[in-house]
Amino acid sequence: MPWRGETDPYRILLSEVLLQQTRVDQAIPYYRRFLAEFPTLEALGQADLEAVLEVWQGLGYYARARNLHKLAQALSRAGGQLPRTYHELLQLPGLGPYTAAAVASMAFGERVAVVDGNVRRVIARWMAWQNPSPKQVQDEADELMAVVLSPTGGGLEVFPGDWNQALMELGATVCIPKNPRCGGCPVAQFCQGKTSPERYPAAKQRLQKPVEVVALVLVGPQGVHLELREGRILGGLWGFPMEEGAGALPRLLGRFGLEAAELVGTVRHAFTHRKLRVQVYWANKDAREQPENRPLSRLDRKILELIQSQRNALL
Ligand code: SF4
What we know:
By secondary structure, the protein is of the alpha+beta class. 43% of the residues lie in helices and 12% in strands. Strand 6 (262-270) and strand 7 (275-284) form a beta hairpin. The structure holds iron/sulfur cluster. Residues 122, 125-126, 174-175, 180-182, 185, 187-188, 191, 193-194, 197 line the site of iron/sulfur cluster.
C-alpha cells in the first residue's frame, strides 16, 4: 500500500477517504492519480470541483468527493493545514471518529485507537465479548494502546499510528472472521477468546421476518373508530383496531359485526425489537373519533396517512 508508513496528514486523509469508498486494490490507482493532480491539500482546495470529480470518476458516491473538496477549500483558506488533534479533526465537516483517529495517530502520533471492523473483531475476541458496544470497543482499544505504549506497561516504543495499522493488519490477516490463525497469532497468550474465537463477536442477528398484522379502519360520516391502546409500548395512545396471527381479519370483522372490509394497502413499521407488516382494511361504520384530537402512535399515523391518501373523501 503506497500510504503505508506515510506521515503526511493530507495523504493519510486521502487514503482513508478512498478506503471508505472502495477496496485497497481499487483505491491505489485513485490515490496515485489524486496525488499527481492535487499533490497538496492546498492544491486540492484550489482546484475546480469538476476537476476533482473527474479524478474521482468511477468510484461512485460523489458526495464524498464533494465533501473532501469542500474540506480542502475551507482548510486552504485557513492556512492549508489539517488540525493536529483527534478532537479538532473530529470537528471538521465530514470527518468521523475513524478518519480523525487515523489522521491523528498516523500523522501526528496521538495515542488514539483507530477502530475499524477488523479491530472490533480482534478486541471482541481478545476480551471474549459477544456484543460489545462501539464505545466499549473504542475505550478498550484506547486503553490497550495506552498500556502497551506506556513505559510502565508494555513499554513498546512504537509510533501510535504503527500500532493502529498493526492491529488492523492482525484482524485482516490473522484474526480473520472464519478459522482465525490462533496458532501463529502474536497476541495469543493474552487472548481470552482463543479457545472458541468464532463465538466473538456474536454474529449480527439476521433481520427478523416481520410480524403479519391486520388493521381495520372504520370510517363513518362523523369520523373514524379509535381505541385506547394498552401495553408497554403503545399504552396510553389511541389507534385503529388491530389483530395479528391466523384469522386476524375474520376476528376483527366479527368484533364489529361486519361481513367484509376492503383492502387499502400495506404499512410497514419497526419497533426496536419487532417489525410489523400491517395490512390495512377499511369499512363503513358509524364512528365519531377525530384522529387529530387523540394522541396516535407513529404506526397509526402511517395508517391514517394511507387511508387519507386513498379515501380522502370519506374522512
Ligand atoms: S489468538 Fe486467535 S482469536 Fe485471539 S486475537 Fe489471536 S487470532 Fe484472534
